[in-house]
Each structure stands twice: as C-alpha cells, then as structure tokens.
Amino acid sequence: MLNNILGNSIFWIVLYLTGFMITTIVISLRGATNKVENRIPKPSVRIFILITFVAPPVALPFTKGPKLAIVTPVALTVGIIFLIVNFIIKAVAQKQIGAVPALKSKGKLVTTSIYRVIRNPLYISNGLLAVGMAILFKSLNALLFSIPYCLFYLLIIYFEEKDLLEKYGEEYKKYKENVRWKLIPRVI
C-alpha cells in the first residue's frame, strides 16, 4: 500500500502544495518567522524543508505517468547538465549563507559571491533540480509540476524580501538596486 501512495504523483503534488501553503502563511504573518525560528527545533524545520521543497521534485519522476518524447542521450545530457548546475549553484550559495537560510538569525546581509549577481540562487537551484530530474527521467508529470513549482517561489520571494527590507532597511534597498534580478543572473 505504501508503494501505491509513494508511486502516485498526486501524493507528491499534494505534499508540496500543503508544505508550500504552510510556508507561505508562516512567512506572510508579521513576526511569525521569528516565533517559528525560536520555538521549533532546527532539525524539525530542516526535515520540513526537505520534505516540502526537495522530496517532490526528486520523487515525481519515478511515479507512474506519461513519458516525454525525448531521445535518451538528449534527456541524459540535458538532465545531468541541469543537475550539475543545480549542485554548483546550491553549493556556492549555501557556503555563503549557510545550509538552511530560513533558520539564519539576523546577521550580516550576504551580498558577495553568487549573491552579487542574483538575489535568490537557492531558488534557482531548486528549479534546476525539478526540471533536471523531470528531463533526466523523461517524466511529463514532473516537468509539468516544475512550472508551478518554480513560479510559486515568486510568492515566497515577495514575503522574504519584505522581511529582509524590514531587517536590513537601506542596506537591502541598495542591494536590490545593484542586483535587480531575483531569479536570473545578471552578466557582470
């Protein structure tokens, strides 16, 4: 029975949407983020983030459903390239900001390295993960899922930027002016 549930794409989509809604509600409430940071153990938040934002795009390609009509060598090449770029961006960004940015208390605003050219590299890497996995395993359901998965980050970014503006004020405002792109890297 567990195989039937985990092999069902609807399960992973509902899991993601539920986690996304919880995340959006928490970050949209004024001051709620600080309360969550202080009351919920960090390992629990890490597990929630893993289950909500990493597990669905990784698991969906393995569920039953229609396959993309891509020749295997192309799917392998494009999928692996997306996953490698995802890994590089994620590694560089996490080295700069920490393993779980949502758990970071007020510290210095990170504006160097990859954050000098793009404001949200971790979200870009998650999008590359979703698309890369979908293409690599030729999953139409996973590819279709990756579209709203990537677009929903815009709502999270909206609330996070409000919070960052409140935390860092003029410093964040200047950073936004210098790094205009939320999700697309600027050319230096």
Task: Outline the structure in words.
The chain is mostly helical and 188 residues long. The model has no long low-confidence stretch (mean pLDDT 84). 69% of the residues lie in helices and 0% in strands. It has one domain (2-178): Four Helix Bundle (Hemerythrin (Met), subunit A), CATH 1.20.120.1630. It starts with a helix and ends in a 10-residue tail after the last helix. Helix 4 packs parallel to helix 6. The protein contains nine helices and no strands.
Biggest sheet features: none
Shape: globular
* H/I helix tally: 9
**Distance from first to last alpha carbon:** 52 Å
User: Care to count the β-strands?
Assistant: 0
Gyration radius, rounded? 17 Å
The portion of residues forming beta strands comes to: under 5%
Query: Are there runs of 5+ residues with pLDDT below 50, and where?
Result: none
- CATH topology label: Four Helix Bundle (Hemerythrin (Met), subunit A)
At CATH level 2, the architecture is: Up-down Bundle
**How many separate structural domains?**
1
**CATH top-level class:** Mainly Alpha
Overall mean confidence score, pLDDT: 84
What is the element string, with H for helices and E for strands? HHHHHHHHH
Brief synopsis:
The chain is mainly α.
What key phrases describe this protein's structure?
Four Helix Bundle (Hemerythrin (Met), subunit A), mainly alpha, about 0% strand, globular, single chain, 9 helices, about 70% helix, about 190 residues
